[in-house]
Design goal:
By secondary structure, the protein is mainly alpha-helical. The protein has 14 helices and 2 strands; from the N terminus they run αααααααααββααααα. 45% of the residues are buried.
Amino acid sequence: MPSLVANIPEMPNQLERTDFAAGLDDEFISLLKTLQNADGGWGFHAGEPSRVEPTCWALRALSVGSSSVTPSAARNLSSSSIATGTHDFQSEELRKGAGYLQSTQLPDGSWPACEEMRTGSWITSLTCSVLAADGQSAKNVAAGLKWLCEDFPRDSSPWMRFVQSLRPKSHIHSQNDSYRGWGWTPKTASWVEPTAFALMALRDAPSEQLPRNAAERRDLAVALLYDRMCPGGGWNCGNPRVYGVDGDALVLPTCWALLALREAPEKPGRALSLAWLQKELAKIASAASLAVARMTLENYGFGRPHASRDLQDWSAQELAAQGTHVLAWVCLALDPARRWAPASATIKKDAAGKTS
């Protein structure tokens, strides 16, 4: 079984954090808990109605390592004790949050971006990924994954590929339309970020919950992400080249794509994108991008290069004002027991030779 990380440095010890950073993390986690609404969810800002996305990020930050331990206790756990696995959300905050997500799931298994919507969206991927750690949400996750794997983007249908083949390659974009990922909304077009989140959902789910065509969807989506990479490394939101002009990479789409490709077959584009992100980190000035970029590089085993800002530059209240998701991302970046991407990356092949 070949290793996919031959050119990636050894993972650093994520349990090594300063007491100062540990104290910050506890402060941020405490504030995150106070922002939970009575219905169990979180809004994007304090006092706002609960929404699925900020609830997912809050639950991910609160459930790092083990749902029954605090951030301080998690820092005393061994590496083996924080290995990925399915358990039940045990704390009051986690159980109420899971209950909110279960109550907002639509009959077809998907989740809407807000309760007023009656159509599922990309947020189904993030919800499945978060609830995969909760044994009591197994049926919800299985239904969500089934919806995901049945949602094929319309832009890569056989008819649309035929239409695209009649146009000059430079007319709009240059990409392989036979690859299929996921869109922000069902039956539309493939985009980098929703494809990345769907791949992470399929990776995080227990194998018994995966639909039969999950391996095929993964293969097509991985190929799409590599195909959509910008010429200089990294990803933007959509196409790498439009109207003959190369697109510029953006930090967050690049991070989500790299995290989704953590266990994918190695290709030169991944190393090129990691190099781009390392250089870009020095220029990042926002807490949101800095937190996710740090987590991405650490998950690939890279040390922390110099950046113009540090996460300790912001107070908990300042981060919450930027959004519940930003506060949660910083909590994840500061916590050594976060459950984001596996520390090792190998691929498994079935009898037909397909990745699984």
